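Trying the structure run again after the queue cleared.
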Amino acid sequence: MSAARVAALAALAAAIFLPGLGACEPKEIADPRSAEVDFSDPKSVTASIFHAAATGETAHLAGLCDPAGENNADTARICAMTPRSPDWDSFRETFARARLNGEPRISGHRASLHFLYGPEGRDRETMELVQRDGRWYLLAF
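Done. C-alpha cells:
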C-alpha cells in the first residue's frame, strides 16, 4: 500500500473516530453528598454515608436502611453509626474519602451502585439498594 493511501486512510479514520473519543472519556459522576437525603435517588442515599463519615453528621443514617428489615449486617451497622459508636474511627477511615464510581444500575426495585472507599479512596465496592414505595434504601454491600 502506498504512503499516500495509508495517509488518506489514516485521515479518514481520524475524521470518523476521533470526534467520538470524547464520548469515551469517563464523565464526572455527580456525588450528592449531604445529610439531606433524596430517597428518590440511589446516589443520594449512598453518598449520604460518605457525608456522615466526612462531617460527623450522622442523624440521617438511621433512616437509610430497608424498612422491611431485609438489609444485611454491614448496612445495619452503617444505619446505627454515630460518633459515639465503638467503630466510629474505622467508619470514618473507611468512608470519609469514598466517592461514587459510576451511575446506578437499576433493575426493577433493586439498584447496584459502585463506589470507591478506604483510607486512600481506591478500594472498590458495590452498594445494593432496594426500592420501597418509591424510596431507595440500603440493602447490602
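The chain is about 35% helix and 20% strand. Worth checking whether this holds up in the mutant runs.
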